[in-house]
Amino acid sequence: MNANEYQECRLCPRQCDVNRSEGQRGYCQETAVCRIASVGPHFGEEPSFSGRHGSGAFFFSGCSSRCIFCQNYQISLENKGYEVDEAELFRLALSLIGQGVHNLNFVTPDHFWPHIRTLCENLRARGETIPFLLNCSGYQEPAMIEAYARLIDIFMPDFKFADPQLAGQCMHDARYPVIALESLRKMIELNGFLTPWDPTGQETARHGVLVRHLVLPGCVENSLNVLRQLAAEFGRKLPLSIMSQFEPIPNCETCRLFTTRVAAADYRRVCDEVESLGFENVYIQPDLGDMDFMPDFNRDEPFDGNKRDK
Ligand code: SF4
């Protein structure tokens, strides 16, 4: 592993330039010691990823975005997790592959990329062909995408904000819309759209890009502008997942923002726009999401839905 990347850390757009190898922490609040909060077959992703046997999810501790409403706040804002070394990551990955998962799914991976890269290289050197999936915030350093794409088969970035002011308010970086779009262009240029596209989950995805968007309460205009921007840039064949599952977290009360769920009428308005823009390959959540996939990382199995669907 090239530890230099942790010594003057510029792994994400925050460009903190701190020495994480010496225990310093930047915006993500993580040192160079890799930490995870949960690993296991996960059934809460879209059918293209969860399939029948689950997605092999690694939930990394810490986050470079730290959105004030993060649904995984226990790990992204509170940095819950435990230390793992390279050998343990490798053992965990082989165990997941042995359980028949359809992919290895690296959730919020940017700040531990050197560890993930080594893991992926070692797995490929051993002849493992399982797809590697980068499950990320959209807030990726554009200069990193080429390096990711050398190993990563599937990109699943969010596109959270088209509105710079909202991005500034939620994650303290109004540059998000510009950065996310630039990174997404590179992901699509290098890996194309998600393939195969089979929303039944019979045939899980092996390659390409799918973009996620979580609708926020009271932010319909932001969602409509996200969709319009994506349609204008990438056309109606761009695979999308439009999510309604937002649930207020304790920090929402503290910030007095996003203190309700998404109104059904607002979600419908966003879905209507998806249709009128002509997007062809879209996951729409039924009702307002499956609450069994709201995590509690204080439990061994954070997701009730995983016990149900296993
Ligand atoms: S990964 Fe962490 S320390 Fe490195 S630039 Fe990003 S926020 Fe800063």
Task: Note down, in words, how this protein is organized.
With about 300 residues, this protein is an alpha/beta fold. The chain has one domain: TIM Barrel (Alpha-Beta Barrel), CATH 3.20.20. It contains twelve helices and ten strands. The protein has a seven-stranded mixed β-sheet with strand order 3-1-2-4-5-6-7, covered by helices on one side. A three-stranded parallel β-sheet has the order 8-9-10, with helices on one face. α4 (about 85-100) packs across α5 (about 115-125) and α9 (about 220-235) packs parallel to α11. It is globular and about 50 Å long. The structure holds iron/sulfur cluster. Iron/sulfur cluster binds near residues 9, 14 and 27.
In short:
With 310 residues, the chain is of the alpha/beta class.
Task: Give the topology, please.
Elements: H1 4-7, E1 35-42, H2 47-50, E2 55-60, H3 73-76, E3 82-83, H4 86-98, E4 104-107, H5 113-125, E5 132-136, H6 145-149, E6 154-157, H7 164-171, H8 176-191, E7 208-209, E8 211-214, H9 220-234, E9 240-243, H10 250-255, H11 264-277, E10 282-284, H12 304-309
Parallel strand pairs: 2-4, 4-5, 5-6, 6-7, 8-9, 9-10
Antiparallel strand pairs: 1-2, 1-3
Helix pairs in contact: 4-5, 9-11
This protein binds iron/sulfur cluster.
Iron/sulfur cluster (SF4) is lined by residues 9-12, 14-16, 18, 20, 26-28, 64, 110-111.
